[in-house]
Write a structure and sequence with these properties.
It is a single chain. The chain is α+β, with helices and mostly antiparallel strands. It has a single domain, classed as Thiol Ester Dehydrase, Chain A. The protein is built from 3 helices and 6 strands; from the N terminus they run H-H-E-E-H-E-E-E-E. Strands 1-2-4-5-6-3 form a 6-stranded antiparallel β-sheet. A hairpin with a 3-residue loop joins strand 4 and strand 5. The longest helix has 18 residues. 31% of the residues are buried.
Length: 137
Amino acid sequence: MTADPTETLRALMPFAATLGIELLRYEPEEVRARLAWAPELCTSGGAMHGGAVMALADSAGGACAYLNLPPEAAGTTTVESKTNFLRAVCDGYIEAVARPLHKGRTLIVVETDIRDAQQRLAARVTQSQLVLAGSGR
């Protein structure tokens, strides 16, 4: 990881750069990422689009899974994601906190909480990440 984790994330996941995702913490036990509210990320009524919320969760969850891969793994990919939306976000930002629930040889399960700027739970995402076989990273 370079001195700027956000730039490293954006280089590895170009879509994170497109959305403007900022990486706040990048450690195996917790990944934190933030996405600022913007009108172009919204549905009618100014609520942040569920796809933007899920993209932040998938990016943080994928980074968390990557940090918990076994040494011989080549990478990871999302194979399943389940989201519960709990409140609309109409300003400020959303912040993802991703933590591993299960770290296996073939599957990693990550739970990501999405909170708004007032620290209210806006969504909870559980995703399964397949461990890709290979000769290491």
